[in-house]
Specification:
The chain is mainly alpha-helical. It is built from 12 helices and no strands. The protein has one domain (about 5-275).
């Protein structure tokens, strides 16, 4: 993988960790997730007139992605209600690239070099190591995390292919960002009522705008990278966001880190180095 692609994907991983930290610090994670999704749509709108429309073959992928993104956010909320984030998040983000690595040969007819395969598996191993510090999680939480890993792997395939056939990965990303917040807010209003949602938006809109900009930029970089490198490799490297999340949790949120976190950080960093050398 070229160095410029690696650096951009790592920057996207940092943005991913940042907007996740914004949601974690919020008072209502479900509504904050909807706000972040909406913030991404708002950030996308000013750029749409200056970009070409995605090719007609990409629109079914955009529609499918919106449904999958909606399912992803719902499963994230359910998994966090059922178990500790230290168990749920590593399982979701670590198992997804494993699934992609195992199936990309069948789905996309992509083959990884020996170094890329070792680097990908090393990053996944580092991410899954984080789950050891939260081994007391419920079976229900684990099941939800694994189901969501399948959803993540699926929308990664959908968007990776969609970005390639769209003719412009940036245009695809921005158009893809418009529909998920509509679904998320429609669901939130049906469950909580318009007034409760409006009040939350009034006091937390800035959280959604900042987080949404980071979210759309992070995912846009990843989709662009998938047009330059194998999807499985990009998907694994993108999950180094957990490494950035660990740094944020210790330096910004002042959380205590167990030895498992530091071990995971070393393994993840080693995987990124192997990807470059491979």
């Amino acid at each position: 993988m070229p160095l410029d692609v690696i650096l951009l994907v790592l920057f996207g991983a940092f943005l991913h960790a940042t907007w996740n930290a914004i949601i974690k610090a919020g008072t209502n994670k479900s509504l904050d997730a909807a706000l972040v999704s909406a913030g991404g749509a708002v950030a996308a709108l000013p750029f749409l007139p200056f970009l070409p429309l995605p090719q007609p073959t990409a629109w079914p992928f955009i529609g499918a992605s919106a449904v999958l993104q909606f399912a992803y956010f719902q499963l994230v909320a359910a998994a966090y209600r059922a178990g500790d984030i230290g168990l749920v998040y590593p399982l979701m983000r670590g198992c997804a690239p494993l699934l992609i690595t195992a199936t990309s040969g069948f789905v996309l007819n992509e083959s990884l070099s020996g170094g890329a395969l070792i680097g990908t598996m090393t990053i996944c191993a580092g991410i899954l190591t984080l789950a050891f510090e939260a081994r007391s999680g419920s079976k229900h939480a684990i099941m939800l995390a694994l189901v969501n890993a399948c959803v993540i792997a699926t929308y990664t395939y959908v968007d990776g292919i969609g970005a390639r056939v769209s003719g412009n990965a940036v245009s695809y990303t921005l158009w893809m960002a418009l529909l998920p917040p509509v679904l998320l807010f429609a669901w939130a209003i049906s469950r909580r009522g318009l007034l409760a949602v409006a009040i939350h938006v009034r006091y937390n809109w800035w959280r959604g705008l900042i987080g949404g900009t980071g979210s759309i930029a992070s995912y846009g970089v990843a989709l662009w990278a998938m047009t330059k490198a194998p999807v499985a490799t990009v998907a694994a490297l993108r999950e180094t966001s957990i490494l950035f999340a660990l740094i944020i949790s210790v330096l910004v949120l002042k959380e205590k880190a167990s030895p498992w976190r530091y071990l995971a950080g070393v393994i993840i960093a080693s995987g990124g180095l192997i990807l470059k050398l491979g």
